[in-house]
Amino acid sequence: MALPASGQISVSDILTEGGQSAPFSNVSFENLEGGLEFTINTNSPSYPTGPAPHALSEWYSYDHSAAGLYYWDLSDDIKWDAATDKPLQSTTEDFSISLWIRPQWAATDLNLTIFDLTPSGTTSTANRFFLLYDYGLNRFVARYRSNSVNFDRQWALHDNNSVTGTGSSSANRWTGANRGNTNADGFVHLLLSYDASQTNASNAFQIYWNSSELTSQATANSGTRVSMTLDEVTFCGNDNNTAGSRIADYMYMHMWDQVTLNPNLSSMYNSGTPTSAADAGYTTNLIFGDTSTSVPSVNDPDDSGNYDFAAANGQSLASL
Prior knowledge:
Blueprint (H helix, E strand, L loop, with lengths): L10 H7 L11 H5 L36 E5 L3 E4 L13 E9 L8 E7 L9 E7 L4 E8 L2 E8 L4 H4 L23 E7 L6 H4 E5 L2 E2 L5 E4 L9 E4 L12 E9 L7 H6 L7 H4 L5 E5 L17 E4 L4 E4 L1
Antiparallel strand pairs: 1-13, 1-16, 2-12, 2-15, 3-8, 3-13, 4-5, 4-12, 5-6, 6-7, 7-11, 8-9, 9-10, 13-14
């Protein structure tokens, strides 16, 4: 388990995280940072690298067992199915999803289904829950679609430029050449939260870009909702339209059966460093997680054990 991202930590906490055993004595900050007490794992999302003066705070979020960061290098969809705890099993169940995405697509008029929750084994579009990037309108569309009726909220990226950084004109589309505000590796953290208790779609959906909310709404539709059976999740496309796939990089995807607010929102953003739900301490009501370091085999469980891997469609993983 990684060291906490804030609060009180001690030298003994650091040594224990580094695999050392008590009793501890005559340990200096300089020796710790110099790797003389144990070899620092530079795969950790955070580790001390600065010159003197040394401080305990430089060890926040250090994870001695961390592997390197891996991402899906996608030009087609990937999917998991056979969910035991299905998302949105009733019209009263909340939902949220967190993921990191790096656009690689060119400036052409093709939408991207960022994720899609559907019933397995159907190509019908009548019952779905998804997040779409509509290229033509340069907006996100979050939609609960049941019995072919839409309950959704939409946000134009250019109307939220202070958060997205993609530009203030509708012509400033989100592309590989215009990624907007990203972390050091060019990834954007998106978190979509859905509050089922809200009858107005404007209040039901919130979307966050790098932990900052997009507040300027383009439109919303508050149609009737009915219960659905959604046991398949697809990223970078959908089962209904191959034109819903784009060239994009994905990593650290997670879903929960609850609304996500701070401090969990900030913990998943983690100051721009992708992290797992386990390392962020946000595993309550977790129903999906993917931090793959290799392409899973068919029927391998996701990190939560709730879904089975279904198809890679020839897609691969790469390391940063």
